[in-house]
Amino acid sequence: MASGLAPRLLASSSRFLSCPKARPIVSIRLFTSTRASSSAQSTPDSYIINGVTYPKDTYSNIPSSILDKLDRNLHLKPSHPISILRQIVEDHFSSYTPLVPSSAIVSVDQNFDELGFPPDHPGRSLTDSYYLNNEYMLRTHTSAHEVESYRKGLDKWLLSADVYRRDEIDSSHYPIFHQMEGTHIWSNSDLHLLPKLNEELEKKISNYNIAIEDETFISSSNPFQSHHDPIHAEQITKHLKHSLNSLIFRLFGHQANQKGGEPLKVRWIEAYFPFTTPSYEVEVFWQGEWLELLGCGVVMQKTLDQSGVSDKSGWAFGLGLERLSMVLFSIPDIRLFWTSDPRFSSQFKQGQITTFNSYSKYPPCYKDMSFWLPPASTNSSSDQHGASAAGGKISSPTHMKPFHENDYCEIVRDVAGDLIESVTLIDDFTHPKTNRQSKCYRLNYRHMDRNLSNDEVNELQNIVQKRVVGEMGIEMR
């Protein structure tokens, strides 16, 4: 169950955490594909990825900039911050089986339908997700593999993978990031063992320098599932909370004794996720602010039923590895995770959380782009979400889809790649007489490793302008 949270990340200082040698990771294959190479290309009619051809249709919307990064697997790269954090979590849950899916490509059914996403969920839209065609897509969360993993008969597992979402452009958002999902389920005949397990966990946590704020309660907005025994559901929830409080202290507790004995503060908040109930978000008080860490809850029984394990119940959680890494390693820009500069990679060692030292800060180059939006298309607003939007259907080739910022950012990122640091809306104006709408965006170009010349930035800006005019139907001001 991958958390849907997207907090702004603050840099923080950190110390050392150790992690023993990683255990073997189980690779799970969801459908046949060739994984010997990481080649991917796009032709006018199809995508060819690792030797498998995916015919294009009206859903297809994956640019070359995304295809080029498939199978980079930062979460498996030795001594990379994403991998270091993954291994620390795996070490903490040492009895859980670590899993890595064999491909980022999943069916639309796996990504949405099996998990109970409604047909009109905005996550299905072409503006939010990457589609190969109407049947296959790049996973938007690790939960796309949840049912498949349960079907394999695994009761305790941790799954890490790269996920893909069309998003805004700034220092903490990137179209590719990494999630980690964990779950623990029991046969219903074994649920009577939970009180003893919870007693042991609670005793262990009582020795931590941690202050846990938890005013959540079961209610109509966050209920136990009707077919669960309330006593068992309560024990599953307790085990979830004890397990994650322990993990959070493992990640952040190294600071608890560095400030005159002040405890680590953790806060539990009621939440909603389509795959769990009751559901929660967890925050930690860090550098003077509450930071969102993860989402979790008791697994929806219908998910387990669909997986063929109706006789089991349990909990699941999901967290973003970039989010935590940026905080724990004090990494100020999410693009740094993708750099090949040794000045970045040489600062990290397997099993250790160390503070990143910025090796350069080259000046930004700002360029503004102001334009009129195209006239409204004949599509109704309801067509822009859910299954209809995912199909990208428009009434005729002459009618442009309504403007969406994610579409604009996608073109900018496809042209400029990691040279674009942020795209910020600085003006939104509607003409009082013509009712035409205008927007002005400030594009901030900055190379992580060298100065950019004004000429090369102007060239990128001109290409962006030509593409947004041609592909989005806007009119430059």
From TrEMBL:
<keyword id="KW-0030">Aminoacyl-tRNA synthetase</keyword>
<keyword id="KW-0547">Nucleotide-binding</keyword>
<comment type="similarity">
    <text>Belongs to the class-II aminoacyl-tRNA synthetase family.</text>
</comment>
<dbReference type="Pfam" id="PF01409">
    <property type="entry name" value="tRNA-synt_2d"/>
</dbReference>
<keyword id="KW-0067">ATP-binding</keyword>
<keyword id="KW-0809">Transit peptide</keyword>
<feature type="domain" description="Aminoacyl-transfer RNA synthetases class-II family profile">
    <location>
        <begin position="161"/>
        <end position="342"/>
    </location>
</feature>
<keyword id="KW-0496">Mitochondrion</keyword>
<dbReference type="Pfam" id="PF03147">
    <property type="entry name" value="FDX-ACB"/>
</dbReference>
<keyword id="KW-0648">Protein biosynthesis</keyword>
<dbReference type="InterPro" id="IPR004530">
    <property type="entry name" value="Phe-tRNA-synth_IIc_mito"/>
</dbReference>
<dbReference type="InterPro" id="IPR045864">
    <property type="entry name" value="aa-tRNA-synth_II/BPL/LPL"/>
</dbReference>
<dbReference type="InterPro" id="IPR002319">
    <property type="entry name" value="Phenylalanyl-tRNA_Synthase"/>
</dbReference>
<dbReference type="GO" id="GO:0016874">
    <property type="term" value="F:ligase activity"/>
</dbReference>
<dbReference type="InterPro" id="IPR006195">
    <property type="entry name" value="aa-tRNA-synth_II"/>
</dbReference>
<dbReference type="InterPro" id="IPR005121">
    <property type="entry name" value="Fdx_antiC-bd"/>
</dbReference>
<feature type="domain" description="FDX-ACB">
    <location>
        <begin position="360"/>
        <end position="477"/>
    </location>
</feature>
<dbReference type="InterPro" id="IPR036690">
    <property type="entry name" value="Fdx_antiC-bd_sf"/>
</dbReference>
<keyword id="KW-0436">Ligase</keyword>
<protein>
    <recommendedName>
        <fullName>phenylalanine--tRNA ligase</fullName>
        <ecNumber>6.1.1.20</ecNumber>
    </recommendedName>
</protein>
